[in-house]
Amino acid sequence: MKKIINTPKAPAPIGPYNQAVLIKDTLYISGQIPIDPSTGKLVEGDIQKETKQSMENLKAILEEADMSFEHVIKTSIFIKDMNQFAQINEVYGTYFNADTAPARETVEVANLPKFVNVEISMIAVR
């Protein structure tokens, strides 16, 4: 049976979905964009700050499910401009141990929700 995971420490969904779904020991986290949950406003203007906010939103959801980034086995990063990959990667890398980092793909897309520059989703396992 699936368990819905939601926390006020991450942005509320902007559509008909939940922040995350836990099935047995596997957590599927919806894509997180750089919305500051305390204000409901987008973090804009600096791709590193945008990436950090997206990662902090993911962290809050992981914590709500009693997990951490060490439990993450797969991430998907969607970016609007592949020229920002190095800056995004620099911030993203601070959340993981290089020796145990998850599998990942990074894809450049035409647009993202609310026209942000980065969206990140994850799968974690206990």
From TrEMBL:
<dbReference type="GO" id="GO:0019239">
    <property type="term" value="F:deaminase activity"/>
</dbReference>
<dbReference type="InterPro" id="IPR035959">
    <property type="entry name" value="RutC-like_sf"/>
</dbReference>
<dbReference type="Pfam" id="PF01042">
    <property type="entry name" value="Ribonuc_L-PSP"/>
</dbReference>
<protein>
    <submittedName>
        <fullName>Reactive intermediate/imine deaminase</fullName>
    </submittedName>
</protein>
<dbReference type="GO" id="GO:0005829">
    <property type="term" value="C:cytosol"/>
</dbReference>
<comment type="similarity">
    <text>Belongs to the RutC family.</text>
</comment>
<dbReference type="InterPro" id="IPR006175">
    <property type="entry name" value="YjgF/YER057c/UK114"/>
</dbReference>
<dbReference type="InterPro" id="IPR006056">
    <property type="entry name" value="RidA"/>
</dbReference>
